[in-house]
């Protein structure tokens, strides 16, 4: 059996969970190595050696160390092209370009407002930080505009890049999961007919259900 | 079929232009005046539903997001022009990593500076001094990491010029327009890297060009 790849970071991190979803879709065995961010482990010299920006996740397999979740997903999908979900990151150039377009749309248009909302509404309270109402309002406005575009797109196409679930849809899972399950902004997704249908479908995948499980507080391992 | 590039003759459109020139792809440019709001016209929204620039049309095929467009052409024309993706899956991984660093860590900080300084100046609107200060700080921290990286590696992804370096060209140029080039010049290895990449013929052709540009 191939040596499991290593993923560093807490599964509750949206970026870490993006990578875990991809590894599960591709049937790649992995070892999840905890990084205790509440203790600042991600800013300590040992961790900065593998991720100089002090961010999670970081990834290692037998040939490479990598960071940036979307880069890791692309690498994993390419390296393990012949196993697991082979349609996740198509090798057909036009299909692949369409996937890239929507992964970039996620990274540039969807992620900034949605991750700001996730931080403000899901994480800030846990970390006992004051919420910024201005940021929340602005982010919600921006995200609504983005979701209007998605509503139109998902009325023409079952998934973002075409008829099949791809990296483009996967990339949206982490932030949306938080917004729908632990904030009052889930309606932004569920009240839009096509976005709601799409969310139901992509979040119902086995791979994502496993990730959500991993995000739950794990029972302590017996001695 | 000639690739059509829609956009203004600045910013992210230039990311695509440089790539097309490096890959020796024939193209023509179609000006979109964002100050006149042409990017919000229904015809344009049919091409790019988010109403942002650039977009390309290649025959019947439309593609938006500059970093998606450059990946597409770098791959499609892998065997001609400059190889911008590396020679192995691992080298490609490194390219993707640093291209994502540019997109997620470098771009947001420098983009805020451009909006708050250059765009505010152009529109005559007030700028957010706090946002400028914070973004400059952030950018400095990112460039410190680049300094370390580039002390060990000629280019970001390795010893070859790639999409990762290319992606930095259009917005880094604005640092000069904002009088903030010291951010680059005070860092020895970042400066050396910038000198090399900004002297590439493709960038020299594009950096001062005005539309229409036909290759």
What does this protein structure show overall?
- The complex is a heterodimer of chains A (223) and B (215).
- Chain A has 10 helices and 4 strands; from the N terminus they run βαβαββαααααααα.
- By secondary structure, chain A is an alpha+beta fold.
- Chain A has a 4-stranded mixed beta sheet, covered by helices on one side.
- In chain A, a hairpin with a 4-residue loop joins strand 3 (58-60) and strand 4 (65-67).
- Chain B is an alpha+beta fold and 215 residues long.
- In chain B, strands 2-1-3-4 form a 4-stranded mixed beta sheet, with helices on one face.
- The two termini of chain B are 13 Å apart.
- The A-B interface holds A 52-53, 63-64, 66-72, 74-75, 78-79, 93-94, 96-98, 100-101, 103-105, 107-109, 112, 146, 149, 152-153 and B 49-50, 52, 61, 63-65, 67-69, 71-72, 75-76, 89-90, 92-94, 96-97, 99-101, 103-105, 108, 142, 145, 148-149.
For the largest beta sheet of chain A, what order do the strands appear in spatially? 2-1-3-4
**Strand residues, percent of chain B:** 5-15%
**Mean of residue pLDDT of chain B?**
95
In terms of per-residue confidence, which ranges of chain B show pLDDT below 50 for 5 or more consecutive residues?
none
What is the beta-strand fraction of chain A?
Answer: 5-15%
Q: Profile the largest sheet of chain B.
A: 4 strands, mixed
The stretches of 5 or more residues of chain A where confidence is low (pLDDT under 50) are: none
